[in-house]
């Protein structure tokens, strides 16, 4: 990523935080898609991009009528900031490890996943 893309990631992440401050999940979601799109735009692999789009639709678009988990979204913003900081520093190995071990880790994200996908309308575990 070049410095312009890194700056764009930082701006998008700040905008996501502002959207959450306004309880505007639709804006947050669109900005989050744009954030991840910066990374995807660097790939020439159209099959990969299609697969990611389909997975995103299945994970996020279809169940979006349910309430979101603000703590999860805040945590995601913090994770994004950590990731971008590592990229800005040029520590790509640490950035890749962070993605695998934190941002994409089911074990780390499981409490939020359970609250989002398996809670009833009151937020209680089904």
How does this structure look, described?
The model has no long low-confidence stretch (mean pLDDT 89). Helix 1 runs antiparallel to helix 2, helix 1 runs antiparallel to helix 4 and helix 4 packs antiparallel against helix 5. The longest helix is centred in the middle third of the chain and has 20 residues. Helix content is 76%, strand content 0%. The chain contains six helices and no strands. The protein starts with a helix and ends in an 8-residue tail after the last helix. It is mostly helical and 126 residues long.
SSE map:
Blueprint: H1 3-21, H2 25-40, H3 46-61, H4 70-89, H5 92-103, H6 106-118
Which key terms come to mind for this protein?
126 residues, mainly alpha
Could you give a short description of this structure?
This protein has six helices and no strands. The protein is mostly helical and 126 residues long.
Derived structural class: mainly alpha
Shape annotation: globular
Contiguous runs where pLDDT drops below 50 for at least 5 residues = none
Radius of gyration: 15 Å
Q: Main sheet?
A: none
The total count of helices amounts to 6
Q: What portion of residues belong to β-strands?
A: under 5%
Level of helix content?
Answer: over 70%
What is the straight-line distance between the termini?
42 Å
Rounded mean pLDDT score: 89
Secondary structure: number of strands? 0
H/E order of the elements?
A: HHHHHH
């Amino acid at each position: 990523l070049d410095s312009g893309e890194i700056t764009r990631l930082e701006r998008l992440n700040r905008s996501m935080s502002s959207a959450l401050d306004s309880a505007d999940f639709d804006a947050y979601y669109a900005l989050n898609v744009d954030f991840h799109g910066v990374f995807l735009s660097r790939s020439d692999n159209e099959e990969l991009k299609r697969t990611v789009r389909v997975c995103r639709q299945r994970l996020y678009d279809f169940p979006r009528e349910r309430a979101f988990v603000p703590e999860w979204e805040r945590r995601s913003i913090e994770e994004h900031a950590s990731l971008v900081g590592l990229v800005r520093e040029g520590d790509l190995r640490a950035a890749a490890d962070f993605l695998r071990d934190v941002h994409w880790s089911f074990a780390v994200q499981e409490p939020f996943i359970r609250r989002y996908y398996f809670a009833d309308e009151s937020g209680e575990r089904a």
